[in-house]
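New here. Invent one.

***
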Amino acid sequence: MSQKNIKTTKKSSSDAMIDDAIARQKAWLENRRSYTRGFLKKMNMFARKNEENQSVAKQDIEEARNRRSTLGAYWFPILCALIVIFIAIWVAFVRTNAPQKVLVVPAIPEPVVQVVDEKAEPSFDIVRIERDGNVVIAGRWLPHQNISVLVNGKIVATERTDYSGEFVYAPVNPFKPGNYTISLLGTEPTVKSTDKVFLYVSEHGYENSVSLLMTKDGSTLLQAPSMLRDGDLSVSKIDYLDSGRIVVTGDALPRLRVSLALNGKYLGFARVSDHKHFGLGADVGELKSGEEYSLTVRMHDGDGRTVASVNHDFVMPEMTGDDDTFYTVRRGDCLWIIARNFMRRGVLFSIIAERNNIDNPDLIYPKQLLLIPVEK
């Protein structure tokens, strides 16, 4: 009996424990449900407030859009109205009081028609030797035509004139020292220049070179030597004849002029040949033996200015009484010039040819010794 009671008691206490655990679980679930309901209620309250705020914000945005749409629909007419009002005020009050300006349009001159002379010849403007030895040739002719440059009779280049008829030729290689004659030849139509340029390129450089324009009216120096050296002007021989005539020969720069003076008295001038030789004769009358004389030879540029001079003071020796003298032919000489210097007149060259057994008076040779018959 006692054993049955003990078992019954144990069973009842186990059921009570299970019931108690179930009751506690239900209470905990009920608490969780109540907590969840309260939390959801609170969240629902916040959600309603946000919806109200959002609805208010949407209303404000809609009102702003309505205002903007109203202004956007009428901004252009309003702007046009303001511009019209501003222009009306400016015309009515400002422009009427401003001084009126008169615009003066200058008269347009009538175009000048350049008359082209088809008979015109090519001409030179500049022919000069540069510092580096190169030569520059410039001139003019008919516009837009071909023009050839001839050096010593040979065509070396052909240039084209511009709208004003001007041209420039500058060879690449410098000219070698020596003498050159430059001319121009135009084409279509073919016209050769009457004017020529004599060019002397010195072995000492451009400072001793000469450029001389030769025309039918005379010669003009385009480039004069800016620096002379010893030997550019020299006297090689002075002859005094029984006829009272003095003859001076020497060397100078080509194509320049040399003049002669005795005791300050001007006696005449002569042109230097292309080969740098000159001879000058003049009547001076009787020179007394034993007296001192001063002979001056001057070299002049194209403007007549003296660029070099040689003075020779001498005492007149006694005359030997010979009627003849001798002359050594130099390159570029001719019997006409020799006769003019020694015998006053070039037409007497036949006398010199006859005395020296020369069959052809036009043919004499450098270093040929000529007997010059001199008579009072």
User: Anything to note?
Assistant: Residues 129 and 135 are 5 Å apart (CA to CA).
